Description:
alpha/beta, 6-stranded mixed beta sheet, 19 helices, 14 strands, 45% helix
Amino acid sequence: MKKLFIFLLLNVLFSSLVAIKYFLVPGISLNCISILFAFFAVLSQTFIFYLLLSIICFSLLLCIRKTPRFLHNILLAVIFGATLIMLYIDTVTFEQYRFHINQSVLSLVLSGQVVDFSMATCLLMFVLILSVILIEYTILCLIDRYLNNQALQAKTKRKWLKISLIFFIFSLLMSNIVYMISAYYAYAPIVVIKEYIPHYYPLTSKKIMGIFDKEGLQKNIRTTVNFKSNVIYPKHSLQIASNPNPKNIIFIVLDSWRYDTFNQENTPNTYKFVQQHDGVIFNNHYSTGNATRTGIFGLFYGIPGTYWQSFFNNSIPSLFVTTLQKENYNIGIFSSAKISAPEFDRTAFVSIENLRINSAGNSASERDVNLTKDWLTWFNSRDTSRPSFSFLFYDQPHGYDFLKDLDLKYQPISDINYLSLSNDTNPEPIFNRYKMSVYSVDYLLQQVYTELENSGTLDNTIIIITGDHSQEMNDNHMGFWGHNGNYTDAQTKVPFIVIGSNGEEAYQLNKNALANVLTSHEDVVPSLMKHYLSVTNDIQDYSTGYDLFRPISNRNWLLMSNYSSYAVRTPKNIYLVNSVGFSHYMDQYNKTVDDVPNYQYIHQALNNMKYFYEH
């Protein structure tokens, strides 16, 4: 066991030296504090990993304890050597793509459709692998000789081994405590380090920090640290032309809104409003994720939700929002649920002072009522000499809640018991409750529509009506309920309506809608920035989306994500990469298919995932 522990410590040292490559990528900016934190974080992370690996190896050695020692050494050399080689390959992958290696990346490389290894490269890899294993084997032999040296006192050996163990435990505690504090106060030079260390999940706890931060200083956090991140967003500084007649812009978003519940029966007020004002309805529109975080992120940034962690770590605001501010817009953010969970107060809206965090109320329906009242008050008291942007984010469908004084339009109806939901649960009573929640939001929205019509501003207003993601009712008969579970239509396809365009733009918008083109939340920001905020840059400077007011004919796939996975979605298939990096190829109903995915599409998606990183 002592031999294995010494071997473990040496490999922690080797791996930590290799891990330095993670922090040599272009664009990284480290200060003295972040370098010190990275030192402890890398040491503690590699120590934990090798400790687990050693426990596995110890169990294997017990099973073959009667075999010769040199075979034990060969086994350990192969296992630890392969681990070190994989770490080196991961540093190369991270340098190229800014994410860590996983089974999906290996499939992409080994497919031969994207990367074709030369004979020289294969030979070099073979020599590298063999060399590392031989070095590991030699080290094990030297450790055997060292432990057999009678001149060394056993007490001395135990002493420095204890000191090593105490040091690594200290590193583990110190790195987690420092990260927890830094994450709470959005200190980017520390928080950003998480991205560079593979499978690093340090401690975070708002509850623990709240005990020490009784004054709520976290609420006053803004980006005040002079820190250069490796994110290049935008690619080039935005150029904004003069706009003599700026349009008002409104986003109306329903949390968990299914695409099939926008209709004359379920949303009569919205449907009527859309018809009366020549709204353009897109019937093949998808969110950028199956969860609120990535759905709203894609809507406000026009880029994949996979960038969330980097933008959160660096408190990078939405260019759409900062452009609105530069063009002197009145900005009203009205969310029913807390805008700080997910942390849009530290991402999309971080540049907005005195941000309205949430609505008052003890239930989603109460909060939605107060959201509507607050918006009406804001709208009637706004500075009418300036254009306005408002974001109304309703929550009732997310919680299956609805106004209690409404007549039950759908029956039978039942409460939601998440613990009892299964593949055999009858969806009808639950779906009826959900449709009541959508109907309830639509009832409140009539006040918004009436106010807009009475204000006389509709002719000069662009309105986007959509959802952040969808809500499954076991549509695919695989036991999925709600969202954040898969990337089928039931969890990602949402209503999408545009009201207020005119002229050539309206013609092309209609043409795209009638052609049933594949559209995404990534398309909203570039379309509005280019045509209504007078941004003259090429769209590719700040978005990976498409211009909805121009022909869309060559889109074959969409990139979607959630808190821990991502998927490349085509009209017929889903290529999913899960939280531990394993890929699954499925049909549009989430059933595994025995086929080969189009790796060119996947490679294009990976390029979009690294597009805004400096490399």
